[in-house]
Amino acid sequence: MVTIALPKGRLGDKSLSILQEAVEGLDGLDTESRKLILNSQGSKLRFLLVKPSDVPTYVEYGVADMGIAGKDTLMEENRPLYEVLDLGFGKCKMAVAGFPEKGDHRITRSHTRVATKYPNIAQNYFTGMGETIEIIKLNGSVELGPLVGLSDYIVDIVESGRTLRENGLVVLEEICDISARLVVNRVSFKTKNKPIKDIIDSVQKVLEV
Ligand code: PRP
User: Fold this and answer.
1) Which residues line ligand 1 (CB under 6 A)?
2) What's the whole-model pTM score?
3) Which residue's alpha carbon is nearest to atom 15 within ligand 1?
């Protein structure tokens, strides 16, 4: 039995459909229910449906052997996992954003406030730039930060750019590219190597088509 942690929400449908394409016997999954554990009929796979930011936790602790998570989540959580495949969907960018006219202020200000759902990524980025900032951790609607004066900037993912645009904000600096990744628990990779390797190879074949 191989257990896979899947992210609910934005990456969820695509994650499941890529696995259904790769692995036989996953057609009858009860995806319409509110069940959090789905067992496949025809194959020895089990799925845990979890909050996207929790995928690395389930995989690190080995209650899931594998998982699908955004690179943003993996960077933020920074857990000891094997990242084995870039799945190529869920593409977006991690970026610093703010008002266009304030674009240069950060260089001269001694104390910058940055609102973000990703405190570790933001801290690492600004520390790497030699800048001292105060992080304000938010759990969503981060773009509000600059609009109401809570923060000078945000660090967030930008997909279509629509949320920024419609709130009068722009990307000031791109931090990195993001996409969904397949990750594997370090111990499972050894103890269940054959079935896990088979899944990785099958998913890779689907990606190559
Ligand atoms: C994400 C992200 C941005 C938005 C970017 O938020 O935090 O707000 O999507 O997408 P766009 O560039 O296509 O507009 P999400 O929709 O996950 O909601 P949240 O703000 O509640 O976290």
Assistant:
1) 140-143, 156-163
2) 0.93
3) 140
Give the atom of ligand 1 at the shortest distance from the alpha carbon of 141: 20
Kindly indicate whether the domain formed by 92-176 is annotated with CATH number 3.40.1400.10.
no
If one residue of 163, 166, 174, 175 were mutated to test the ligand 1 pocket, choosing by the most ligand atoms within 8 A of its CB, it would be 163
pLDDT in tens, the chain (209 residues): 999 999 999 999 999 999 999 999 888 888 888 999 999 987 689 999 999 999 999 999 999 999 999 999 999 999 999 999 999 999 999 999 999 985 555 445 568 999 999 999 999 999 999 999 999 999 999 999 999 999 999 999 999 999 999 999 999 999 999 999 999 999 999 999 999 999 999 999 999 98
CB hemisphere CA count around 199 (13 angstroms): 30
User: How many Å lie between the centroid of ligand 1 and the Cα of residue 178?
Assistant: 13
Closest CA to 71 of 175, 170, 162, 208: 175
Nearest to 206 by CA among 4, 17, 26: 17
SS3 sequence of 83-109: EEEECCCCCEEEEEEECHHHCCHHHHC
| CATH number belonging to the domain at 2-90+179-208, selected among 3.30.230.70, 2.120.10.30, 3.40.190.10, 2.60.40.10 | 3.40.190.10
